[in-house]
Amino acid sequence: MTSTNYSVKVVNNGAAAWQFYVYQKPPAVANNLSLAWFASPYHIGVGDSITFSWNIQYSFVWSATGIVKPGIQFTASGVKECDPDGENITSFTFENNTPNLSYPATGGTGGSLTIKDGDSVPSNTFAVGVGMSGKGTYVVNAGPNLTHEFTPEPKYYIVAADEVVEGQVMDITTVTKSGSLAFSPQCVRSDRDTESRQYSGTLKPALKPRTSFDF
Predict the structure, then answer these.
(1) Which of 81-95, 179-193, 194-208 bottoms out in mean pLDDT, i.e. has the lowest?
(2) Lowest-pLDDT range, 6-20, 83-97, 115-129, 180-194?
(3) Backbone phi, then psi, for 174, in 5-degree steps?
(4) Which residues are bridge partners to 113 per DSSP?
(5) What is the greatest pairwise CA distance in the chain?
(6) Residue closest to 64 by CA, chosen among 113, 98, 22
(7) Cβ burial 89-119 (10 Å sphere, 16+ → b, else e)
(8) Complete DSSP assignment for 14-46
(9) Confidence at 72, pLDDT banded by 50, 70, 90
(10) CA distance to 87, 90, 132, per residue, from 107 (Å)
(11) Cβ(49)–Cβ(203) under 8 Å?
């Protein structure tokens, strides 16, 4: 299968050092929260840059978070690769004091990713959700006999922040210093060695194409 790789180079053209992170807008699922999907491990100085790279390989993820709320950190465990149009359904269980995601199978709603929690899963203890490129993107609280269905439509946003850690649960309604990220088909480059495609993109405030902005 041919993979598609993406990367974005973020240059700090502002007047102060910032940490930068990338999040994905979550699907319309109740109590579904976005994570800081990628995050710079340090502040990026004025005029300096950082590059984030990923591929569109979906996965199911879980973590022992307690109640999911902004500010806590989600560390993806039990990552199981999945495909919205193939092996797209899994079960999350808690048997013999062991949390576990089953290997994904076919049979879920086409174009969606579904997690079914078992009857022994405790409330307010674990979070489950969807990841991409091996890292969590958005999660919900797990609980007994719950079903979570996500229909992923990747929309990427870059944010400048004073302090953030990768996997941190975000309240995106409070985010201000951000920009949406789009990839242009005209930027495709074929890579014969890896049979992948590399896209390059630029930060786009509102709908202005091929521009940048200061944080």
Answers:
(1) 194-208
(2) 180-194
(3) -105, 0
(4) 150
(5) 54
(6) 98
(7) bbbbbbeeeebbbbebeeebeeebbbbbbbe
(8) SSS-BEEEEEEPPPS-TT-EEB--EE-SSPBPT
(9) very high
(10) 7, 10, 21
(11) no
